[in-house]
Write a structure and sequence with these properties.
The chain has 160 residues and is an alpha+beta fold. 34% of the residues lie in helices and 25% in strands. The protein has one domain (3-125): Aminopeptidase. The protein is globular.
Length: 160
Amino acid sequence: MNLLVFEANLHDPTHASGLVDVLDAYACDPKGGGQPLPADVKDRLVPALIEHPASLVLLASVDEQIVGTATCFLGFSTFQARPLLNVHDLAVIPEYRGRGIGRALLACAEASALARGCCKLTLEVQDDNPKARGLYTSFGFENFVVGDSAPTRFMAKPIP
């Protein structure tokens, strides 16, 4: 397997369409909601990421086919007064899962975070996704706890 992980150039049509294809495959998976991305989201995704000042998109290719992504965003830790890197999406198309591609994407994200002076990598994972949780735990991720409190829970409120 000829695996290559690299920072995407979203002005490159191959990178852009590969990203959309991987994220659409993830959206179709039961863990991603079980529905394809709406056409308008597919149309807006790449231009919006290009315009977003804190985005970092990593791609994984095998034999020149894009098969995975780590879509990340720079954030900031007020408690450490340093940037952080959030892995918003880590996705590998189903037929390539279990081959180390997710781990390679995480390693590239970590290297990018180190190069940017980040204090940590963050991500969210569903409790009922043991494969992803296992990967993240083996990579060094753990539940986030502040002091003696309980682990932090990620919450969201949709805004129309």
